[in-house]
Write a structure and sequence with these properties.
By secondary structure, this protein is mainly α. Helices cover 89% and strands 0% of the residues. It contains 5 helices and no strands. It is elongated. It starts with a helix and ends with a helix.
């Protein structure tokens, strides 16, 4: 007689490890993108002649756009499919990152940071949904907890130097 654990393992897709690797890499890119501006901004500021207001918007624009659209992106993923939203968001994330890298002015940098934040949330919400679907609530909530711990660690390092 099979146990329920054996039944569940037989039903799981063997490609789930490859999908998990893609999701982890995408999650890492999103986390890295949120914090890399803090490192790059001192060298970007004189080249683009950024004012202090543009610097503030460049740093905060990503988080603002990300936070405002996260719930809507999750709902869109529920309606249209998480895989579709994830892949579309990832492609748009790369394109928006290329536009950000080609920024020639402060307004261009700020607008592209908003754009990257808008599409990054679609990847992030789909990642949480994928983790919940494949690994249960502990896996999905563990991913979110690890994101929050990394953010808190990064914040504590920047605030208490």
């Amino acid at each position: 007689m099979k146990t329920s654990a054996q039944d569940n393992s037989a039903e799981l897709d063997p490609q789930r490890w490859r999908a998990l690797a893609v999701c982890l890499i995408a999650g890492f890119m999103i986390l890295l993108d949120g914090s890399m501006i803090n490192v790059a901004l001192p060298s970007i500021q004189p080249d683009l002649h950024l004012s202090s207001i543009e610097v503030t918007w460049a740093v905060s624009g990503y988080a603002l756009a990300f936070g405002l659209t996260l719930v809507a992106a999750g709902r869109l993923g529920d309606d249209l499919g998480r895989r579709r939203i994830f892949t579309t968001g990832l492609v748009l994330f790369v394109i928006a990152s290329l536009f950000r890298g080609a920024a020639q002015s402060g307004a261009w940098l700020v607008a592209s940071r908003f754009g990257v934040g808008l599409v990054a949330c679609s990847c992030c919400s789909s990642l949480r949904g994928y983790c919940l679907r494949t690994g249960g609530a502990a896996s999905g909530n563990g991913w979110i907890l690890s994101v929050r711990c990394c953010s808190a660690w990064r914040l504590s390092r920047s605030c208490f130097r």
